[in-house]
Amino acid sequence: MSKAAAPQIELASADPSIALEMTRWLSHLGAERRLSPKTLEAYGRDLRQCLDFLCAHWGERVTLARFASLEATDVRAFMAMRRADDIAGRSLMRALAGLRSFGRFLEREGKGKVGALSAIRAPKVAKTLPKPLPMASAKRLADADERAGEDRETWVLARDAAVMALLYGSGLRISEALGLKRREVPRPGEGDVLIVTGKGNKTRMVPVLQNVLALVQEYVSMCPYPLPAEGPIFLGARGGPLSPRIIQLAMERLRGALGLPDSATPHALRHSFATHLLSRGGDLRAIQELLGHSSLSTTQIYTGIDSERLLEVYASAHPRR
């Protein structure tokens, strides 16, 4: 049985033909490119904002023909409008990437070539290195006793500690940890690896410490809701899938209790995992695999490794005479 067609998008600022192509484009990105729902939502929102701007800019609804005749000045005006709204460079870069993707889709479908989009330079994005946590602080974040004074059920505190332990102990993204099914997490003594699904639905194998599995099992034994093998292992207070926002709020409370800076986020635990492994002699390529990075340069930035550290590795490992 074929999948039901995606609901038709409606646009007040554009011709129905644009709305139809936008619907088909987003369906293509989801089915063929396997982009995440959040990315699809962001791309759709960026294109809507561009069409709204062009409608006001040109004084008429946008048609396919008019969109294909976009000029570089039109695109720059849209980007300037977004920048005036204090939109960060990374978001502007994503918006331009989405518009270019839509333009390429139209070209492949024979609906016109939007040449102006390729003539615009992507905005510069400042590279900010992540700030890992001290080892002692990272370990304390996975200790449920640090929040013993909070007015929360014991199983909730155990759950949050287990999630934090996975983020730091295995370097998982928060979405990867919360996406784990119960059958995918071995009991203590019955396994030492996890198969996680990361960006682009790519799976990878990561090691997991036995004391981390013990924390997860402690939460499982206390959880008041059924945890079927095919269901998510981490549940919210009402029994539904656990929201990342809940873990972010838990981290905010712990920051205050432990005197940590605002940079101490759930994702900082993943940074800390990589940086602490590297500082203890971990191989950069191995860390790349553990993190699920497609590019070694991403891992290099991620761990804050600099040229001096690379030279140290070279000097210690090169088989010179």
Concise structural overview:
By secondary structure, this protein is mainly α. Helix content is 54%, strand content 3%. A hairpin with a 5-residue loop joins β1 and β2.
Polypeptide structure, described:
The protein is mostly helical. It has helices at 16-31, 37-58, 64-68, 72-84, 89-108, 135-140, 154-170, 174-178, 210-222, 244-258, 266-279, 284-291, 296-302, 307-317, and strands spanning 193-197, 203-207. Helices cover 54% and strands 3% of the residues. A two-stranded antiparallel sheet has the order 1-2. The longest helix has 22 residues, at 37-58. It is elongated and about 65 Å long. The model has no long low-confidence stretch (mean pLDDT 83).
How is the secondary structure organized here?
Blueprint: H1 16-31, H2 37-58, H3 64-68, H4 72-84, H5 89-108, H6 135-140, H7 154-170, H8 174-178, E1 193-197, E2 203-207, H9 210-222, H10 244-258, H11 266-279, H12 284-291, H13 296-302, H14 307-317
Antiparallel strand pairs: 1-2
Helix pairs in contact: 1-2, 2-5, 7-9, 7-11, 12-13
Portion in beta strands: under 5%
Mean pLDDT: 83
- What's the number of helices? 14
Helical content (DSSP H or I, runs of 4+): 40-55%
* SSE series: HHHHHHHHEEHHHHHH
Structural class: mainly alpha
Counting DSSP E segments of at least 2 residues, the number of strands comes to: 2
CA distance, first residue to last residue: 66 Å
Sheet with most strands: strand arrangement: 1-2
Radius of gyration over all CA atoms, rounded? 24 Å
Main sheet? Answer: 2 strands, antiparallel
Runs in which pLDDT lies below 50 for 5 or more consecutive residues are none
User: Per the principal axes of the C-alpha atoms, what is the gross shape?
Assistant: elongated
